[in-house]
From TrEMBL:
Its EC number is 2.7.1.11. One of its GO terms (molecular function) is monosaccharide binding. Residues 36-331, 408-712 form the Phosphofructokinase domain. Its main location: cytoplasm. This is 6-phosphofructokinase.
Length: 759
């Protein structure tokens, strides 16, 4: 299996491959030494550059020659200067840039064989036998046709004398691998496509900006987002922005949708809401196939309700801007003491594509790299293309029957993390939809002990999705034996029949303690679920926690500026970062040392280092000595004096070493490198917890919570006793809700003990 292994090589983090060694190593090496060409085709999307970088550097690490084909299939047809060899430095400092550095174009001529024949000749002349295509389903279909015709095109080129028999023999087969880049996320076989997360960032940024002005004037905004046949952006942005109504192609409304829409908006206004947001996908239509446009929706709202209504068509703004950290690196897996493994979307998909194309046999069919759950896999390209052309599976409507009125408690235990409010919002509203009573336990275990509990309703969580922090209140106090009697009393007084923990490692410890206390306290024999939410991503039973995405995005923005002082919030950080980057270009050589939070877990430091192209990072899991630090100083001096590098970036986990503090490293680099560079430090601290949750964290929080509510509903029904009490006393009724491999999974808390390093 492929793992992207990130090592410190001085210049920056390098992506290399760890492959299973076979007995016939020379044969394997001969397979890997190929000439690869990479192109971007069709519409551009953020994250393409990160993919290009991975293809080039992983290919070179395997001993391959890598070529750029500029301007997509157009450049392949035209040849000449459009096909150029790529080098390691060719892809330096491009991860943060949107679009594609080698250009993209639509080439209708490529549909004709005579132009494909010319493209084949250009590849053969450059010795290219492997092709990595980054684009949508149209581009990938064209690439597969090109591969299918390759043998016949070779024969035709030989007959016409345009290539020799020897050239035809050397290029007897063409391997093709596709990477799906589309902001619409409209390709079958992969959960997400390159660019869709960044597009969600643009939409949520626009919606968040609109919210303040809409509320001030009690306006209704209709936002139109992209997606001709796919409502992914619309439905995800509606979840992330707490929109009141959404129109998507997969779930066409009945003809009476204007009545239902106006009833919903009226209901929200009566509940005290000052604004309404309606999101419509550009391909939305009713059940009869009649298009539903943003202007049509505006007319309905104005004529029926008299609302001051405005339309915002985001258009190509959704394609622009810098890629999110998710589109650069999908940071899921853990780090061990020696090797850092990363599951990436842009970067990992590019690395996987190179591995597949270099190991492909002549008779292998074209493949496409897909991301399913947390696994990067490859599937037959045309199978996915054919299934993409079919009608997308509609999102199932939730149909709940209200039966027994259960009471469920919600609490946060741990530290604030962006996305917590979105999880509470989803829990309260879905439990309320079931007809359950929801009790919010303020300030975690401390509030539980003090009796600070309050009933929560549908309207009490309005506006929570877009807010950072923890509106319900949070404490890092962990439940212990001294709390048992009073917690049992609170559960009994409030008739709480299930508990939902939303928090970090402290939530796991608290829920585990209650589960272990079931033998002494019958009140603890209720379903217990932990939804992991912490920026440090250090909770057992899951590969990703709510809040980590927002945190890495914030760190990446800061690190890219190499700024020495951060005193602003995330909302103002983007503008400040751009200015600082420009200002830093005029300064003398400078090294920035940034301290990152995370306790003893180096996850944030490692992933931020990859996403920002840091020179070195220091984490608790990888021990280092003064000799290593001195060596890094010398490497930095060499870069500054010989390689023409003007800025350096070092990341330090806050607890990586008790003696080699940020101040110590700053003083060491300042003294030893004073003849080559100056040194600045920044300690990000609690600002990393974020101000506004990223679209990914909002959507993930809601999806995980909905799954947790469904699980709790099932458990409550299963363990309901004739007297109305709950008797959940088995290990599988106290679980961690996590993302493992390709699925959401509920793992018994007891089962996680053996895999947890409690110290």
């Amino acid at each position: 299996m492929l793992g992207v292994k990130v090592q410190q090589k001085g210049k920056e983090f390098e992506l290399t491959l760890q492959l299973k060694k076979s007995a016939s190593k020379p044969e394997q090496d001969s397979q890997l030494r190929k000439t690869i060409a990479v192109l971007t085709s069709g519409g551009d999307s953020q994250g393409m550059n990160a993919t290009l970088r991975a293809v080039v550097r992983v290919g070179m690490s395997l001993g391959c020659r890598v070529y750029f084909i500029k301007e997509g299939f157009r450049g392949m047809v035209d040849g000449g200067d459009n096909i150029v060899e790529a080098h390691w430095a060719s892809v330096s400092a491009i991860m943060h840039s949107g679009g594609t550095m080698i250009g993209s174009a639509r080439c209708l001529e490529f549909k004709e064989r005579r132009w494909r024949l010319q493209a084949a000749r250009n590849l053969i002349q450059n010795g290219i036998t492997s092709l990595v295509v980054i684009g949508g389903d149209g581009s990938l279909t064209g690439a597969n046709t090109f591969k299918t015709e390759w043998p016949s095109m070779l024969e035709e080129l030989v007959r016409s004398g345009e290539i020799s028999q020897e050239e035809a023999y050397k290029s007897s087969s063409l391997q093709v691998v596709g990477l799906v880049a589309s902001i619409d996320n409209d390709f079958h076989g992969t959960d997400v496509t390159i660019g869709c997360d960044s597009a969600l960032h643009r939409i949520t940024e626009a919606a968040d900006s609109i919210t303040s002005t809409a509320s001030s004037h009690q306006r209704t905004f209709v936002m139109e987002v992209m997606g001709r046949h796919c409502g992914y952006l619309a439905i995800k942005s509606a979840m992330a922005t707490e929109a009141d109504y959404v129109f998507i192609p997969e779930d066409p409304p009945d003809k009476d949708w204007p009545v239902k829409l106006c009833d919903k908006l009226t209901q929200e206004r009566r509940a005290g809401k000052r604004l309404n947001i309606i999101i419509v996908c550009e391909g939305a239509a009713d059940s009869d196939g009649n298009p539903i446009s943003s202007d049509q929706i505006k007319t309905v709202v104005v004529n029926t309700l008299g609302h001051d209504t405005r339309v915002a068509v985001l258009g190509h703004v959704q394609r622009g801007g810098r890629p999110s950290a998710f589109d650069r690196v999908l940071y899921i897996t853990r780090t061990d003491s020696k090797t850092r493994y990363v599951v990436a979307k842009g970067s990992r998909m590019g690395a996987e594509a190179v591995t597949v194309v270099t190991k492909a046999a002549a008779t292998d069919e074209s493949m496409v790299i897909c991301l399913t759950g947390n696994e990067t896999i490859h599937r037959p390209l045309m199978d996915c293309v054919q299934r993409t052309t079919e009608t997308n599976q509609a999102l199932a409507r939730m149909d709940f029957k209200k039966t027994v009125r259960f009471t469920v408690g919600l609490l946060h235990v741990g530290r604030p993390s962006c996305g917590m409010n979105a999880a509470v919002w989803a829990a309260v509203r879905k439990f309320s939809y079931h007809g359950y009573k929801v009790v919010g336990i303020r300030y975690g275990i401390e509030g539980f002990v003090k009796g600070d509990l309050q009933e929560m309703s549908w309207s009490s969580v309005s506006g929570w999705v877009t807010k950072g922090g923890a509106n319900l209140g949070i404490s890092s106090t962990v439940a212990c034996s001294s709390h048992d009697e009073i917690i049992a009393l609170r559960l009994r007084e409030n008739k709480i029949q299930a508990l939902l923990f939303i928090g970090g490692f402290e939530s796991y410890l608290s829920a585990l303690h209650l589960e272990e206390g079931r033998s002494k306290h019958s009140e603890f024999r209720i379903p217990l679920v932990v939804i992991p939410a912490t920026i440090s991503n250090r909770v057992p039973g899951t590969e990703l926690t709510i809040g980590a995405d927002t945190c890495v995005n914030d760190i990446t923005e800061v690190c890219q500026t190499r700024s020495c002082k951060i005193t602003t919030t995330k909302r103002g950080l983007g503008v400040m970062c751009d200015r600082l980057r420009l200002a830093a270009q005029g300064t003398r050589n400078r090294v920035f040392i940034t301290e990152i939070t995370g306790g003893h877990c180096g996850y944030l430091t490692t992933i931020a280092g990859i996403a920002s192209g840091a020179d070195d990072s220091y984490i608790f899991e990888e021990k280092f000595t003064i000799k290593d630090l001195v060596q890094h100083v010398q490497e930095m001096k060499t870069k500054m004096s010989e390689a023409g590098v003007s800025r350096g970036l070092l990341l330090r986990n806050e607890n990586c070493n008790a003696n080699y503090t940020t101040k110590f490293i700053h003083q060491l680099f300042s003294e030893e490198g004073k003849d080559q560079f100056s040194t600045r430090t920044s300690i990000l601290g609690y600002s990393q917890q974020g101000v506004t949750p990223s679209p990914f964290d909002r959507a993930m929080a809601i999806k995980m919570t909905i799954a947790a509510v469904d699980w709790m509903t099932e458990q409550l029904g299963r363990h309901l006793q004739p007297d109305g009490t709950i008797a959940a006393n088995t290990p599988d009724t106290a679980v961690m809700m996590g993302i493992l491999h390709q699925n959401y999974k509920f793992t018994p808390l007891r089962d996680l003990i053996v895999d947890t390093d409690f110290e």
